[in-house]
Structure formats: C-alpha cells, structure tokens
Write a structure and sequence with these properties.
This protein is mainly alpha-helical. Helices cover about 80% and strands about 0% of the residues.
Amino acid sequence: VLLLSVANIITIGADLQGISAILGLLLGVKPVHLLIPVTALIAYLVMFRAYRTVKRVFLGFTLVLVTYVFSAVAARPDLKEVLLRTFVPTIDASTAYLLAALGLLGTTISPYLLFWQAAEEKEEHKSVAQAKSVEWDTSLGMIYSNLIAFSIIITGAVVLFGQHRPLRTVRDAAMALQPVAGQQAFLLFSVGILAAGFLAIPVLAGSTAYAVADTFGWREGLDFKVSDAKGFYATFFGALVIGDFIYLSPISAVDALYYSQVLDGILLPVLVGMLLLLNNNKAIMGDFRNSLFNNVFGWFALLTSLALTVVMIVQWIAPG
C-alpha cells in the first residue's frame, strides 16, 4: 500500500504539472497560478458532489480522450513503419529499454486501477448476476484505453523521436506537435492532456484513499458524505496536497510520470499474483473462478513484469 501510494502521489504531482502547463499555454497565464484552482476544483467535485454527478464528469473526460486518435492521424505517421514496429519491435537488454518496457507494463495494467475498479463495482452495488456485464464493460474499457495509448505512442514517435526533439516538460510535447501537424493537432493534443489529467487525478487519489481505508478498516466510498468517512476523504485530500508539493518541487513532470510507472511495473507481479490466488480460490469465488484465458494472460503479465524487474535490478547491482 505504501509503494502504491507513493507511485500514485508522484503521478498526481506530474499530472497537476501537465494540466497547469497546458491551461497556462492556452490561457496565457503562469502555470503555477493555476495549481490551487485546479486542485480545489477536483477536490470539490469528488468530495462535495453526488457520486452520480462525479461519474458523469469522469465519463465525459473519457470520451474526450478520443482527441488523441485524431492527433495521431494529424501527425501523418508512416503507416508501413507503424505496422512493422508494432508487430516486429526492436528489442534489446539495455537498462533504458528494460525501464521503458516495465513502465509500459505498469501504465497498461496499472496497480491503482485494481483498487479503483473493485471499489467502483462496490459503489454501484453490482450483484453476482451482473458479473458478465461487468466483464464486458471492463474489456471494452481496456480496448478503448489501449487504442488511446497506441495513438499517443504514434504521435510521440512522429513529433518527438522522429524530429529528434528533447522532452523535458508536458508543454514541450504539446508545442512539438504544432510545427509538424499544425495548430489543429496541437489543440486536440492539448485537450487530450487536460482530459487525461482531470480523469486520472481523482482516480489516483481515490484509489490511494481506498487502499489506505481498506488497510485500516475505515469507512470508505464516494457515496458517503465527508463527515461520514473522514479518514477516507482526508487521505484523498492529503494525496492532492502532497501532489501540489511535488508540482512545486524541482522534479520534472516527465521524469515523475516515467518513473512512477516503472514503480507500478515493479508492483505489478505482487498484485497480479494475489489476484490469481484469489480468483482461482473456489471457496471464495465459487463458479466465478478465472477462465483459462484469464489465467494464461495473468501469468504472462506476472512472469513478464517479474523477469523485467529481476533483470533490471541485476543490471543495477552488477552493471556490464
């Protein structure tokens, strides 16, 4: 829970930097002046609005993420190269490559989503009979999120790697798109960054609050008022505040996002292992135990992330 909280809060700080930088760019305001208003808006929506209202806001932000697909198209990638590198990737055993691979796993099968997803279904009082619809909902969500991630990778490859541009801030990523793909693509990508940030920060802070509340046995849930779940909401708000301090620190938003996902990748085998044990326990799951398909891919994710972590640690201890 401690490692999960650290990774989540670092990511919150980086996302706050990203939102403030893009809003500052669009509005002509210093990003630091937007930090308190952005944090206050997120805290207000989650802590003082009805759960159903918050859910509709989150759904709206999710739909806006499709702008990343348009940005990828506007960047005019070489389709032959995209297909080739998608199905025949270049693989090496360098520490930098292992870090990137582990971070990609960590951001694809994010540990914080395991806590958030379970809490979401609990909040909505889903019954066992609705398990199949929940599975379809989750599957469609993963397909959509990976389409968005793939679009971001393509855009980054064209406007950053393809142009040999250094990436130090989120603002650099948005600005790099303008001369390559035009003003329209720049605006689409900027809107995508804003939507992703406003969607991710409440989920990150919320999953931290759920994990901590579960650990200490506190009352938890967005259905409760602040006065009825003080520990849960204090953790949520505390995660936002610490994220603000990370924003104000010298830590680069790009580095914070990158290495927090690597940390998520290191956490992944532990959490996936626990899920596999739980979901294959007949006494707990009954007829809803894992299918062969889920077990195969679960073990694949566990062993891959574990192998990457072990090799990376060995390289750190004994380089060369």
